């Protein structure tokens, strides 16, 4: 990736996202992702775990992560790590992200370890799952009739 690494989101976010529409790229200027860890949702140790994962990710990629010490204001383009309902399991948001607002990443407490946190982070940044690669069908046959309707969009390119 080059400077200004892009992250996609759907133009039409929310419950009625149109996954057949082309993806819109969100650019993090200078490949720097500002982030905020909600202190009401994560204790000090959990926040350090998230920061450690971000540091490891930055070391292996062109991305840089810059902490925001205050809660983002409306319209701020910041990745926000939160868990407002105290869920334990990993939650992957497949609805996309708005281009001009915070990217909200729900991190369940069971996700605060590798490889789960890495998977959620990569998905939040716009990286597709391996089973979404364009060469997938050269190697496996996906039986779409066996996929739950709510998970179908995870198997589209």
TrEMBL record:
Domain called Peptidase M12A: residue spans: 28-153
EC numbers, comma separated: 3.4.24.-
Residues that span the membrane, as ranges: none
Cofactor: Zn(2+)
Keyword tags: Hydrolase, Metal-binding, Metalloprotease, Protease, Zinc
Listed Gene3D superfamilies: Collagenase (Catalytic Domain)
Entries under InterPro entries matching the protein: MetalloPept_cat_dom_sf, Peptidase_M12A
Cofactor remark: Binds 1 zinc ion per subunit.
Pfam families: Astacin (PF01400)
Listed name of the protein: Metalloendopeptidase
Native source organism of the sequence: Chilo suppressalis
Lineage: Eukaryota, Metazoa, Ecdysozoa, Arthropoda, Hexapoda
């Amino acid at each position: 990736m080059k400077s200004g690494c892009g992250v996609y989101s759907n133009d039409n976010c929310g419950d009625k996202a149109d996954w057949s529409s082309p993806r819109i790229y969100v650019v993090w200027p200078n490949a720097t992702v500002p982030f905020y860890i909600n202190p009401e949702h994560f204790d000090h140790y959990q926040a350090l775990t998230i920061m450690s994962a971000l540091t490891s990710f930055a070391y292996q990629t062109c991305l840089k992560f810059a902490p925001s010490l205050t809660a983002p204001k409306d319209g701020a383009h910041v990745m926000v790590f939160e868990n407002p309902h105290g869920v334990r399991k990993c939650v992957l948001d497949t609805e996309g992200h708005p281009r001009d607002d915070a990217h909200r990443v729900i991190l369940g407490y069971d996700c605060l370890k590798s490889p789960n946190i890495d998977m959620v982070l990569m998905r939040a940044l716009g990286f597709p799952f391996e089973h979404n690669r364009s060469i997938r069908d050269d190697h496996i046959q996906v039986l779409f009739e066996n996929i739950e309707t709510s998970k179908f969009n995870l198997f589209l390119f």
